[in-house]
Structures are given as structure tokens and as C-alpha cells.
Amino acid sequence: MSGALLVTGTTSDAGKSVVAAGLCRWLARSGLRVAPFKAQNMSLNSVVTPDGGEIGRAQAMQAAACGIEPSPDMNPVLLKPGGDRRSQVVVRGTAEGEADAVTYHDHKERLRAVAAQSLAELRARYDVVICEGAGSPAEINLRSGDIANMGLARSARLPTLLVGDIDRGGVFAGLHGTLALLEPADQELVAGFVINKFRGAAELLDPGLGMLERLTGRPTLGVLPWLDGLWLDVEDSLGLGAERGPTGTPRGTDPLRVAVVRLPRISNFTDIDALTVEPGVEVRFVTEPHELADADLVILPGTRATVADLDWVRQRGLDVALLRRAQRGRPVLGICGGHQMLAHEIHDSVESQRGTVPGLGLLPTRVVFAPQKTLARPRGSAFGYPVTGYEIHHGTATVNWDQAAPDTVPFLDGCRSGSVFGTTWHGALENNDFRRALLADIAQRTRRDFVPAPDTDFAAERTARLDALGDLVVNHMDTEAVWRLITAGPPEQLPVVPPAGAG
Fold it and tell me: Is 394 a catalytic residue?
């Protein structure tokens, strides 16, 4: 068989990725060969595939739900915004350059063909492909160039589910209004609705569900309850709260406090997820200098625009706060773009094209940006433990050992100078032994009475979360109806819903 289904949403962060991952997990546990697919993704959270390609992190998470390794075909077009108007365009895992909203439109036909080819190849290799849309299918100003939502559904004749987030309010208006704004040929493919993040008594929804079906001729195939612990591997910063992590993780009376600087173009903030599952660790995202004062560890995370975000750090006075921390021996960890900011000097003729600019000067390094992006899955060791990670960067930091302080030592691919650590490796904190050793070192430096839990296993936490997504689908969706859509395609003669004011 070669079945497929598209999951779209009324808005960004409505739950498309969660529903798609849950469907993947359900089908994989049923013994089917399943793969995820997202034709076009706009995200700053990405990973490196085994063959050296770059794709969105959400599709890698969905591949894990399927029990398979990720591949570039699962996300053939990835857009990585560097500002309000420009994005780096990654095609089948390889960066092709920058485009703005206007020039990108000129590439749509070629990219549509690329996406269609990737989907066809996945369908030839797997029993089922679960496709995820992007944003909302009712962005009517963009419909003519759409390759990820109804444009994809119509070209591949995909039955489509529309997901709405009831926690935001207005879910019935969102579902009905989204459908009504679609062209008749697009509406014919939307076969049902899914309501996400519901809290309360399900029977209170029944009158609304019945009216929605009478108005649209389409059933609601699932009402998914609110479930804590689904914060891992989110696709964009809409999933970022001030405090990150599961509400049930015990923090203790004297937690180890981690402050993560929320950069304007923050990328791969999923690096922090492994810290949030540690008992006794409190993780917060911050933007003000005073918020660093009580932190035991400050993390400068990755960024899509190192020099521009370094300007922002200075404008807010965070540079002064970081310097004072370093002078007092208070730990700072820079990851990728954050690591680059810690350098003495940055030479960037690629991203910002600003040439040579001063860094924060907290590490004895010089960063040089190269046109070719580094994509790798390195292995190494730190604190006596093996460490694996992945690299996605244009800027490479080189340590000037001749000018380094006597206490400067290697740290993964970077260095540690005093209490300041730097590495370009994403995903390093997911290594359990290394993470515990780093936290123990931080606790010792800050004189905290903190001992890392010996049995916290981040990979097991992720697997448990994926199983929880599969359980959501099994327990709260009409899986028989969903299976019919996957195997038989869209139902015949679905009614067309006229837009408001029509007729």
C-alpha cells in the first residue's frame, strides 16, 4: 500500500506537529512502515541527518516516532529566517542561499517540483506518509504559491485533517472560517476536524461539535485533551514560555537556576530541553540584565544571526552583566552562535556582511564565517564521558592558545576559560553522563547543594513522550475513520461551505 494524509492547522502552533507525530507513532506501533513529511518548513530549530543534510527538528522528532532515521526528503524545503524579510533557503538538506519574500516566489515552481519528488520517493519506500502543513491553509494571499498545504494536498490528492487549538479560544470559528476561505477544490479534500488542547468535560463540546458538522458536513475525528509534558522538540518560538519544562518535575527548595538568554533570532533552543527534565533544575528564558543576577548558569544559545543578536545583547546591557559574571567566576555556557559571541573577534562577511567586529571577549577565540555551512554529527568527550552532538554553522571558532589564560582548557570542539564554556555542538546536553557532570561542576562552582539525579535518561523521556502522543491518538481519535482516509483517500462529494457574506 501507499497511503498518505495531510495534517493542517487553523494557525501556527495549533498542534499540527503533535498530531502528525501521534499519528506516526500509532501507525508505527501497529507494525506499518511510516514516514513523516513537511514540504516546506520555516523554523530555526533544525538537525543534521545521518547523510549530512539539514531538516527541521519537528520532522526529525516525527521520524523518531516512526522508529526511523530522518532524511532530507522528509523536509525538502527549509526556510531559516535571518530577519523580518530574508531567509536562508535549504533544499533537500543543503543551503542554497538567501531569499526575501519577493524573490523566493520566483523559486516556487522549482521547489514545488522538488517537494513533489520527495513525497513520491517517500511513498514508494513506506506504507504510509503522514504529511504536515505549514502555518494555516487559509493564508489566501499566499495560496497561488502554496506548496505545503492545500497546494500539496490538491497535487497529490491527499485527504486532509484540520486541527484547531481550543486553548486559544474561538476554535469553532477558526475551523469553520478556515474551511470557508478555501477554494471549493481545496475544501473537497478536507475530510474532518481535530480539536487540540481541550480542558474540561468533553460533553460540554457536544452541541458545538454537532453544529459544526451540520454547518460543514464534516465530522470531528478527535478531541485531544490538554497533556503536560509535550514541550520537547517544538518547532518555533511560539512554544517558548518564560519557564520551560514539565510542570511535574520536582525543583526542590533550592534549585539550580539556569537562565537562557532569549535572543531575537534564537535557534535550536531545543538544546535546553534536556536540562528541563532534571530534578532540581529550573530553566528560565530571560531578556534583561537583572534576570541573570541569581542564575547559577547563564546560557547563550544558538542564533541565526550572530552579529545582529550580539548588537541586541549590547543594547540591552547584557554584555556588561555577562562580563561581571565571568569576573566573579559565575558560569556561562555559549552554544554555537552563543559560543561565537563569546569570542574576542568575529569576522563575518557572510551573514551580516559587517566584516570584523568585536565579540564579548570572554573566550580567547576568533570566529571566521565561511560561505559553506558546516553540517556534521561529531563525537568527542568531556568530563571523562563520551559526547555526541551535531553542528550547523557558518562561523568557526579557533582558540588562540598563545593568548589564552593559564586555566583555559579544551571543551568539546571549543574551550573553557575560567567559568566560561563554549562549543558549537548542539545536542550535547542530551548525553546523560556529560550533562550530569556539567551540572555537578556548575553546582561546585556556585556552591549549590545540588547533586544531579543518577537515573534521569533524556532519550527515555523523549520515547515516553512519543508514546504519550501515540496514546492520545488511540484513545481520543476515531482511528478507524482516519485509517479509511489513509487507505481510501478523501470522501466523495464533501459539501462546499460558502464564505461569510456569499450568496
Answer: no
